[in-house]
Design a protein that fits this description.
By secondary structure, the protein is mostly helical. About 80% of the residues lie in helices and about 0% in strands.
């Protein structure tokens, strides 16, 4: 099973690339048993959505 450190790395990596099937499976297994990592993933997802929908940051993306 993955360690919490490995899971936090995969959760972050997941924001930049599609994980392989084995990575996704191992991540899901760990998240089933680790409440702390589920909270970490929820926080990362929340921050990603917040940044994506923030009006000032959205306008900067249009300028580039």
């Amino acid at each position: 099973m993955l360690t919490c450190r490995q899971v936090s790395h995969l959760v972050s990596e997941e924001q930049d690339r599609r994980l392989g099937w084995l990575e996704r499976w191992r991540l899901r297994v760990h998240l089933k048993v680790c409440e702390g990592c589920r909270h970490f993933q929820a926080n990362v997802d929340f921050m990603r959505k917040a940044v994506r929908h923030h009006p000032l940051l959205r306008d900067q993306d249009k300028d580039e």
